[in-house]
């Protein structure tokens, strides 16, 4: 065996397993498999990758995405959102930030605790009811995009 062949073999053995995409499942359906509501991601995720053995994931948007929720929280998503996912927990998050007062802070972890989601920015955390995240916000307008969307939200909440 030549030295080149041996180096290629060693390189192949040492490389981590690639992240894989599942064409049959959307990123939103994947969240449900880990006990998260789809609304923690904005509409417009074009694809995702998941290494099932480690839980490492990447989700992709065409561009940055930002919007306000409840008139007080501004959220921003980078074109690539990554981290590790496991049942009831997203950790090591990158690509998601929230504006607190005048500073943008990275959301680094989300934990589902019964009917609440706990969002951590490292130095502090906040808890929100799970039912706030049943619908994915839309880039630019959040949950206040048009009358048709608001009527859909009202009919869903009355069920």
Automatic annotation (TrEMBL):
Pfam families: DUF538. InterPro entries: At5g01610-like, DUF538. Keywords: Signal. The keyword Signal applies. Residues 1-21 form the signal peptide. The keyword Cytoplasm does not apply. This is DUF538 domain-containing protein.
